[in-house]
Fold:
Amino acid sequence: MIYTPANCQAILEGYKTQTRRPRKEEDWIISRLVNGVEIQQIGNKSLKWSTWRTYALQPGRGKKGIAHIRFTHFELQELQDITEEDAIAEGIKALEFPSLKSLYYAPGDINANAETGIYALPYHVHTAVEAYRIQWDRLYKRQPELQWEQNPKVWVLDGIELA
Structure:
């Protein structure tokens, strides 16, 4: 599966355990029990995801896989139904300050200078959902029908783990 290099790193470090992908009109989901274990599959005529398969973790289109991952659960929801907990599972992190509200950011969005201890963020938001919204709109900027405001249906691929 293709991710940004920063999101690949977040998966490898274990703090990105969920991902959302736009639902296509022709997508389907099948859920069944096999030897007491629920197996889920999502697909269409050109793509299929399954909870029993592993997938190469690719840091960009056409890049070689750097690890293998699997998912434990799939769910369909509207994009804006994401919770703070879900956004954090998507890899959103917080900068915490003793006397200020936390600032949230997406993987790859922070510049830290180790010598000065100064952090630079391209935006200042105080919720994980708002940071996720910024990341989503940046990833799908060329597809207006998938922008946050349109609230598209998305597949939630949950329980990302290294295989």
